[in-house]
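Shipment paperwork, digital attachment
Item: protein structure file
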Amino acid sequence: MRIVLVGPPGAGKGTQAAYLAKNLSIPHISTGDLFRANISQGTALGKQAKAYMDAGNLVPDEVTIAMALDRMAQPDAQKGFLLDGFPRNVSQAVALDEALAADGVTLDAVLDLEVPDEEVVKRIAGRRICRNDSAHVFHETYSPPEREGVCDECGGELYQRDDDSEETVRTRLEVYHTQTEPIIDHYRAQGLVVTISALGTVTDVTKRAMEALQRDRAAQA
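Attachment content:
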């Protein structure tokens, strides 16, 4: 299957992408991984991306698109893939459509993970990280430490990252709604969108997603 995963920050896209890709036996292709791989390997695209990033600028669509298409052309992606973080806007979605059409293939589904804005704010703004070890992560509501502000693992101080502040989260949500969410309507017009609730446990959401994708695939057969 060729799938695009869409959802707001805090929807659990990375976690769900890993589980779904494993269950469907297709590679998980994330924008973050693409940038890291190309930059670490010193590819021409990686050097271009790094130059923009070092200057504090956004990486242009054409560079991101080229990286994604190059990755989808690899042997392990010939029978399918799961895209996470790409396309990020309608221009990228159109470029992806055109590239797939040129290869005589199409997407099978666009899986839309739906989460209310207030739940996103609660999920992200409630996170607390240990200053001694960033792998020690707690949440004020869902997994609070035994002592407020103190890491259960090492006794380190827990703090809120600047990226997790409510103001920053709401700004990220605004960017998502204005730039990325429109691709859902773009793909809905093609009959590709499968929307599920991303509320509940990771296992619940994965099960819900797999069942929805299977139903969609059966309906198209």
